[in-house]
Protein: Cation-transporting P-type ATPase N-terminal domain-containing protein
Amino acid sequence: MSEGLRCTERRIVEGTSDEVARFLRCDPKRGLSSEEVARRRSVHGLNELEQDAPEHPCAKFASQLKEPLVLLLFASAIISTCLGQYDDAISIALAVLIVTFVAFVQEMRSEASLKALASLVPPKATVVRNGRPPETVLASELVPGDAVDVVAGARVPADCRVVESLELVVDESSLSGESEPVAKTAASALGNRTKNGGEASVTLPVAECATVVFMGTFVRGGRCRAVVVCTGGKTEFGRAATDMKELKVQRSPLQQGMDDLGRRLSFASICVIVAIGVAGLLRGERLLDVFTIGVSLAVAAIPEGLPICVAVTLALGVMRMARRNAVVKRLPAVEALGCTDVLCVDKTGTLTLNEMSLAEIWCPPIALSGTASLSNGARAAAQREIRLRRLATPLDGEPPSSGGIELDPPLASKKSAHHRYALVVNNQEFSADILPSQVSRLIDAACVCSNATLSNGALDAAVGLPTEVAILAAARDLGVPDRRPELQRIHETPFTSDRKRMDVTVVDASSTRNKPATFVKGAFEAVWPEVSYCYANDVVTPVDAHVEQATRNAIHELSLRGLRVVTVAHSYYAPPPSQYRPTPRSTGLGSLGRSLFSSGADDDDDDDEEDDYYEEEAAAAALSVFPSSGGRNNRQFGGGGGGGVVAVSGNDDPATSGSRLVFLGLVALSDPARPSALAAVSALKDRGARVVMMTGDSRDTARAIARDVGILSDLEGLDASGEEIDRWKELGEVNTQLSRGVVVLYRVSPRHKLEIVRALQNSGSVVAMTGDGVNDAPALRAADVGVAMGGGRGTDVATEAADVVLTDDDVFSIVAAVDEGKAIFHNIRNFITFQLSTSLAALGLVAVAHLLDFPTPLNAMQVLWINIIMDGPPAQSLGVEPVDVAVTRCPPRSRAEPIVTRHIFIRVITSAILICSGTLAVLASELPADETTDEATRRASTMTFTTFVFFDMFNALACRSDSAIVGSKRLPLAANRAFGFAVGGSILGQLSVIYWAPLRAVFHTEPLPLRDLFKILLVASSVLVLDIARKLDLFGLRRAAAFPLSPRTNKGNTKLGSPCRRTTALVCRAIAGRQHKASAQLDHVV
Structure:
């Protein structure tokens, strides 16, 4: 047996069961011996996906030190130590330790959360070994060649070849992306291509492997015995996990921006050293002294608090996201979502619930040509078309009247889910509080013709085909009882892919007639040829061209909406007793293995074939399995009012007709969109993101879901298939074609998803990808941000590949993450603006004072205090500024846009010049004309020191927002309590430094009179006044100052207007009272 064997190889898929068993050297009936199991386990290992060796905490901590800005701080600390500036070295080292510790702790917390998410009960498997009865073992103990039994409701423990099966249906959506379950069989339907010249080792697509069940897929119905072919990392799941790990993780836009900022600061530091050196040499100073001063100033200008702010801000954002059921594995991923302009969404399980539900029921109208013998009232009723429709949003208030529809009380329930469904009669909507008999009989018939079960009524614990589970769930919600336990099933013809229908014959032993009847559901083309009658509006009438055309039109309309349509009918007869066969099942329907006629001689008709029934006797037999209608004659198809009407032409005697099915109507089902999907897509579009849906489903299904959730509309959006992606790739046009506005991609494979993500990234977009299956893992890994569903539906492989895991599977959590990311970047940019302007002002103050031969304006302790303010609580509190709604509505920023834009740079320079010049002016005004005395120097130092500190406080206040004015409705003074406490504490500390004697001795300050404090406040507040003037556009620079984020083009849509620009313009005009040119300004910002 080859080590590289795959379950999708042609010799496994297309070979017979005996050939595969010989190839694997196993006996499916007796299983492997214990000795052989041990030998094979030593060769193939445990049946587990390969896990990376856990990274040691010390190595994880050290990995946080690789960021360029952190390395720059390390270099600064080393230089400070060499120059003897130990206070600077200690403060920088502490900053580095805080940054690494915060990032380390957050990653450890995320890992712990994911481990808790994965700590489920170990999967088990039923295996046959040593020729003994089946036994239960851990799935990890399976080896190739083991014979396993798999039943409905279980997950497949390994990649296996089916050798025996009974109505086996498997949900492979987590692997293939196809939402429709797949029928599996032991006999290949593809033919023996191996024997006809095909390569035995060639692998086939998963969709063509009808004889293979794959690890991790879910068995929806039936059972099988299979032999294990591949285990662990050699399974399709394992190979997908291995391929995913080989993909390189993308650095987030914030990380790229911080790298760029680190390079710019390094370049600026070198320029400072060179400039100070040249100036000092021109003045005749010693080279060593000049170099020492230059290096000291360059180190002082580096904002060592910046990495702390970024780490703390991201960590707080991660904590807020955790409260919203989103586990963030990498800190930068939160901010990256904020600049995502393309969100690729997997349909199945992300936008939809990945569970079928009843969407609509259609009941046929009676053709006018078939109602000539009816009364006028019956003829009017015959023109009604009745539908039962699932509501997108539940009805509120009391249910409206039934609108005169005839009802069937015995099958109705006053506690039905009328808030979730509506009756539609001739396009007029009513509550489904009470069901018409036409609808209730259709649902009842579909339930009888079903093998599914709802465990304790819970949909998530259901066993069976998704279609049947959906019908049972709708019946439960609508108050239609499941009567299968009361009926004895005597015959069943199961659904097959060839026959496309299911027939069930039952008898109600409690009925006085005790006659069998057959119920049928399946594809229209498989059922309709045997239909002769229809039941509509409580009337049984022969089918004519009008009914057939109306039915075909309804099917066409429902199919265009992406719904799966099931045709339901019942018969006037049952198969002859010679055709009866028991259909034992484990669904609790009762007496399914017993013969119908334990005492057949009791009824004279039992010895005759059912084809000899007369019309009324046949109708009665069919009706005997329906509940009686309050004492009405069981021969009537119980309706309302005047009772049911049986209208059958003598030329259509069922006794002589070959087709006797009575058509009840159509049941349309769908995998419905998540309740939050529509709101999520709308919110993402409002935030400037383009939402692209990718699925393995058909075009009609994909477009229908895309329309339901708002991705696709009549005015915008195109679709493309996986085949078109391949054709575009050959022509080198993938990027061009996707940029035309393609928002729906159908029939795509995992390879297509990966190519689409990379093509969008190559076009300059920041791409986020959501998914929950193995087929999504490569794209999740390659995207800038991978978002996995982890609330029980997501696979381990997808969770491993993602950066963010949604523990509640709520797609709207992505919107919250996008808002969080935009707010985080906005706060980080405000912090950088504050730190750079303050650092440059301090650098300029010392440098200019040195060049002008002023006394040293600040001593060492005062410089240390200023560093605490620049990098301490007042600065850090800017990172926790509440989310500004206008910021969240801004288009996402470009990947190429730097953190320090031209607008930010101009703002930093102007603020730094103002702070530096204002502080130097105070210093110059305090220097005496004659020789400076010691007291005068102390006073001048105190005035300079206090002025610079208050400049910092006002500058921090101005940097809380780049567009909103402090004190306005958008930016209340008390909105950021942390900032208020930090600034208040700093001001109290500064007053203590100049008025409390012990601190005066340490900082070499002296008390200042009240008028000097007012003078300082007046000068220092100029930086806030300048900021307000800029935001009010008093300098006519609104185009540059409206907001730092540049507008983006939403590919496939029109140029997006910026809500934040619009809001900023309105606020600024309101505050400034400038109403002129309002229309022109609005046109500009929109």
